[in-house]
Structure formats: structure tokens, C-alpha cells
Design a protein that fits this description.
This protein has 20 helices and two strands. About 10% of the residues have low confidence. Strand 1 and strand 2 form a beta hairpin. It is elongated and about 155 Å long. With about 575 residues, the chain is mostly helical. Among the domains are: about 35 residues, no CATH class; about 150 residues; about 200 residues, no CATH class. The longest helix is centred in the last third of the chain and has 31 residues. One of its GO terms (cellular component) is RNA polymerase I core factor complex. Belongs to the RRN7/TAF1B family. This is RRN7-type domain-containing protein.
Length: about 575
């Protein structure tokens, strides 16, 4: 046995060879010099090399979702949202039936209109809460394992060749970049900044209306169509006043819903069911007119015209008018063909005497009560002028003799406009302060807060220390409800003073009723209205719940319509005289 070589550095005879580098080192770590390893390089290790392989198994933790399992999302949440809306609608029907003394048929009509409303939505709610969809998803893997997949129909070779040729043609067009660029430039049309602004405004307006179709405001539209079906003389401000007085469930309605329904509402759904303020008149009219139009267009369910006689009397009384003013307004409204329908498509088209005549006019789809009170303003302008100039009748047979004098009449209108009804003293629009209340007013305010803030009686706590030691006294008098019902049925409760003097006759040369009537352009933003005319328009706008510009625009359109009728009558009379 050949002796082992000693290390020239330390003299050690213990050697070892590294398996990875092939170097020979002694026990002290000195590398043996002048040593050559005559082995070929291989990719794999030799049979004597030790390779350790270890597969690390990653521990998968079960993901726990932090979402509340009681909340409903998706189609199931949408179905639950409409369930809440339907329950709120039933509460609103019960509140209106109690407040206005409506017949029991009102609930039946509301139920039918609600069914039509759901079917006419752009995105109707699902018919069921989609439990069957979950069962289908669970049953699909079982069908796949059993091989119960549906067999696809055999392909037609001719149709397959046609599809391949079409795909090749499309590919050739895409491969030619110049041709694609020319076609893209040809399809694009330059838009000015005004066109872009108008397009964005129309898109936002349509998007806003699309969002309102399934909001709580749509319930008021359903109630309005039901009232029109029963020929009830109601208007949009009647519902708005009840909402602001918390007589009609609309603001914070979640306190009326049971816990079994509110526990499944998400944050967004709860916000959608809880509007922060009462709806506007124009928004309600847009929803109501759309519903009536689609009901007639798709199901041929006709909504009758407005019960115009009592509503016109309410408009006359809102401007402190008397029966003479009512009779004059009725004649002018018949001459102007005032629209009393929810939408112009429900009314018969206008009679065309010539080919140039239109089948409908502007503001034919306006708010009906605004059209009526605008006609009253037109008659008042014919009698008084409302431009700061005195006008007096000359003959005793003039109907203007039965109307009051202008200064006293305008003073009554201004006083009525500044007076807040007792039922609306504590609404959001009221400016009254708690510091200015006396003891009786403070008790009424606490009763209003109890009605507006506390939940339903069956949802209140049985033992409440505050309610036990500091109970709120109930008001057993029904004067407020009777006064509210009288206002809704008969109009404003303030009677016309009997001592109001009438217009006096004047024989001297002065302006007569109907002379020098000024028509004010609503689009003139720099023009100022006379104080007398502005006072009357402001009172009419407050009564109807719209802007003053909207009322003045309707008045201007009706005045120009009278001018065109007057010119046409004079032309026909001139032709008859010539013949």
C-alpha cells in the first residue's frame, strides 16, 4: 500500500476531495498543488454525489371574508330593494287614505299602476330572489361528470367557408394601416365646444332621469297617476307638503320598516331608500308623464284628463281671486286649448286649418297646475296690466268692475305669500328659531319632532326612562288635520276680505282693461320685470312649486298664442268684408 503524501505546508496526511469543485485539500484546508483531474465535464452529478431535494409544501390558509352574510348584493339585493319600495308604497297609500278620506278602490288602482310601473322600467327587477340560479350552479358540475352536456348542432360546411372568407376580409383590412387610418378619419366628425357641452349636458340629464326611475320619487308618480285615474283634484305640491310635514312616509322611511327587512340592506341601498329632501315638482312631473305615456303606448291604459274645474278654482284662490276671475279664466283657457293631460301624446292632436299648422304646441306637456295659474295671470294682465299704469273700466257691463282695486289686491297677495301655513312651520324651508318660540309653539315643535324622528310604535323600546319620566303629551285635537284636508280639497283657506273695494268707473281718458299689454321675453336675462307682475309670478311659483322663470315662460307663450289668434281673427274678418 503506497504511503499517503504529506502536506508540504503542515505535514498532514488527511486529504479530501470536494465533490463540487474537484480540489483536494488537507485537513487544515491547504490545497494540493500540481494536481490534475482528468475527467470530462458532465451536466449531471455522478453516482457517488449526494443530492438533497426537498419539496416545501405551502400552507394554504382559508380565506375568511369580512363581509356581513346578512347583506344582500346583486340581483338579490335589487329584488329586496323593490320589496322595501313596495312596502313603503303601501304605507303611503294608507296615509293618503286616512288624510284625504279616499275610497278603498284607491289601493286597488295603486296596486295595478305599481305593477305596470315595474314592467315599464328600463331595467325591471327580477321576478324571484334567484334562489333557483344557485341551485343551477350547484347542479352544473354533476351534469358535467355524468356526461350530460348538450350536443352542439352539426356545422354547415358552406356557412363555415363563408365565415372564414369574412374573417379573411377583415384581416386584410386590418393589415392595411393606411386604409384603416383613412376610414377612421372619415368616420370622425369634428365637434365644436358648444356641441360637446350640449352633448355632455344631455347625457348627464338622461343619466339623472334614468337613475330616478326606480327611486322613492317614482312611488309619488304612481300615487299621482292613481289619483288622476280616480279624477281627484290633486297636484304635486299636495304630496310635497305632506312629505315636508311628515304626514306621508317618504323622508327617513327606514324607521317604518321591520328589522327583518332593514337587516339585509347595504349602505348604498339604505341611502337610496332614504332621500334627504322632498322631490321637486318638475322631477315628479317628468316621472308621472313618462309613466302615463308608456302605459298608454304599451298597454293601452289611458289616464284621463285632470279634473280641471276644482283645480282651476284652487289656482284662482291661490291668487286671491273671486268667482268673476274664475269665469273669465275659464273662457280664456277654453280659447287657448290649455292642456289638461299628463302628456301631450294622450290628448287629441290640434285641428290643422292649413298645412303649416302644428299638431301640438310648446308647453303642451307642461305642469297642468302651472298652465292653469298662468292663464289666471294672463287674465290679470288683461285687466290690470301689472306694469305700473292705472287702468279703469268705462262701462258698467265690463267684468273688471267686479274685481278689486289693484293696490289692495296686491297687498292681499303679498300677505298671503309671506304667511306660512301652521302645518309647515317646522319644515326644512322654515326660518323659525327655537329661541323665538313660546311655550305653546315649543310643545308643537316637540310633537313634530316626535312624529318626524321616532320610529313606529311597535318598534319602540318597551321601557324607556326618558319617555317614562318626561312623556310628550299627545295632541288630541284634529284641527291641523282638518285644516290640511280643507287646504288640499278647497285650496288656500284664507278667504277674500269682504271689505276689499272694487274697481271704480272713470269717464276721463285713461287706459282701459286690455289696452297696451306688454309681453315680457323670458329669455331676456338683462330685463327686469315690473314689481306688480313679479309679485304675482312669485306667488304663483310658490304655489305650484316651480321656478319663477318657468311660470313667466308659460305666461309669455300663452300671451303670444292669444296674439296669433287675434291676428288670425282679424285676417278672416277682413277677408269676409272684402267678399
Amino acid at each position: 500500500m503506497a504511503p499517503k503524501r504529506r502536506c508540504p505546508v503542515c505535514g498532514s496526511r488527511r486529504w479530501r476531495k470536494s465533490a463540487t469543485s474537484g480540489l483536494i485539500t488537507c485537513s487544515e484546508g491547504h490545497v494540493l498543488q500540481n494536481y490534475r483531474v482528468e475527467t470530462t465535464e458532465v451536466d449531471e452529478f455522478g453516482p457517488h454525489a449526494r443530492i438533497k431535494r426537498k419539496l416545501h409544501k405551502q400552507s394554504k390558509k382559508k380565506e375568511h371574508s369580512g363581509a356581513n352574510p346578512n347583506l344582500y348584493y346583486g340581483e338579490r339585493g335589487r329584488y329586496h330593494y323593490f320589496q322595501c319600495l313596495q312596502l313603503i308604497l303601501r304605507m303611503q297609500v294608507a296615509a293618503l287614505t286616512k288624510a284625504w278620506g279616499l275610497p278603498p278602490q284607491f289601493e286597488t288602482v295603486c296596486r295595478d299602476v305599481w305593477t305596470l310601473h315595474l314592467s315599464l322600467l328600463p331595467n325591471p327587477p327580477p321576478a324571484e330572489p334567484l334562489y333557483f340560479a344557485e341551485d343551477r350552479q350547484d347542479a352544473k358540475p354533476a351534469e358535467d361528470t355524468l356526461g350530460l352536456q348538450k350536443s352542439s348542432p352539426p356545422e354547415d360546411p358552406e356557412s363555415k367557408d363563408h365565415a372564414e372568407d369574412k374573417q379573411n376580409d377583415l384581416g386584410n383590412e386590418e393589415d392595411d394601416p393606411e386604409m384603416a387610418k383613412l376610414m377612421r378619419e372619415n368616420s370622425e366628425t369634428p365637434l365644436s365646444s358648444e356641441d360637446e357641452t350640449t352633448k355632455v349636458h344631455l347625457y348627464s340629464r338622461r343619466k339623472q332621469l334614468r337613475k330616478m326611475y326606480d327611486t322613492p320619487a317614482s312611488n309619488i308618480a304612481v300615487l299621482m297617476v292613481a289619483c288622476w285615474t280616480l279624477r281627484l283634484p290633486v297636484m304635486y305640491m299636495d304630496f310635497i307638503r305632506l312629505i315636508e310635514a311628515y304626514k306621508l312616509p317618504y323622508l327617513e322611511p327606514l324607521r317604518f320598516l321591520p328589522v327583518s327587512m332593514t337587516s339585509h340592506l347595504t349602505k348604498s341601498t339604505s341611502k337610496a331608500l332614504s332621500p334627504s329632501h322632498a322631490p321637486r315638482t318638475l322631477d315628479l312631473h317628468n316621472l308621472t308623464s313618462r309613466l302615463a305615456k308608456l302605459m298608454y303606448a304599451k298597454f293601452e291604459v289611458y289616464t284621463p284628463e285632470m279634473n280641471a274645474t276644482p283645480t282651476l278654482w284652487r289656482a284662482v284662490r291661490a291668487l286671491q281671486g273671486n268667482p268673476t276671475l274664475y269665469t273669465m279664466t275659464k273662457k280664456v283657457a277654453r280659447m287657448l286649448s290649455i292642456p289638461v293631460m299628463l302628456h301631450r301624446s294622450l290628448a287629441a292632436p290640434l285641428q290643422r286649418l292649413t298645412k303649416e299648422d302644428a299638431t301640438w304646441r310648446k308647453y303642451d306637456s307642461a305642469v297642468p297646475e302651472v298652465s292653469l295659474i298662468a292663464t289666471v295671470i294672463v287674465v290679470l294682465k288683461m285687466v290690470y296690466g301689472l306694469d305700473g299704469k292705472d287702468r279703469s273700466p268705462k262701462e258698467r257691463d265690463d267684468p273688471a268692475c267686479a274685481l278689486p282695486r289693484l293696490p289692495e289686491y296686491l297687498a292681499c297677495i303679498e300677505q298671503l305669500d309671506e304667511t306660512t301655513p301652521e302645518e309647515l312651520r317646522f319644515t326644512a324651508a322654515s326660518q323659525i328659531s327655537v329661541l323665538d318660540m313660546d311655550a305653546e309653539t315649543l310643545d308643537q315643535y316637540l310633537e313634530f319632532c316626535e312624529t318626524a324622528l321616532l320610529p313606529r310604535e311597535d318598534r319602540r323600546a318597551e321601557s324607556n326612562v326618558v319617555m317614562q319620566h318626561f312623556p310628550l303629551q299627545e295632541n288630541h285635537s284634529l284641527t291641523n288635520m282638518q285644516r290640511l284636508q280643507q287646504e288640499i280639497t278647497l285650496g288656500d283657506p284664507q278667504p277674500l276680505p269682504a271689505t276689499l273695494p272694487a274697481l271704480a268707473l272713470r269717464e276721463d281718458e285713461c287706459l282701459r282693461p286690455g289696452d297696451s299689454i306688454s309681453i315680457y321675453n323670458n329669455l331676456d336675462v338683462l330685463g327686469d320685470l315690473p314689481e306688480q307682475y313679479e309679485l304675482v309670478v312669485r306667488r304663483a311659483a310658490h304655489w305650484a312649486g316651480v321656478d319663477e322663470d318657468y311660470v313667466s315662460g308659460v305666461v309669455e307663450r300663452y300671451e303670444r298664442r292669444i296674439m296669433s289668434l287675434w291676428k288670425r281673427t282679424r285676417t278672416l274678418e277682413a277677408r269676409g268684408g272684402d267678399e
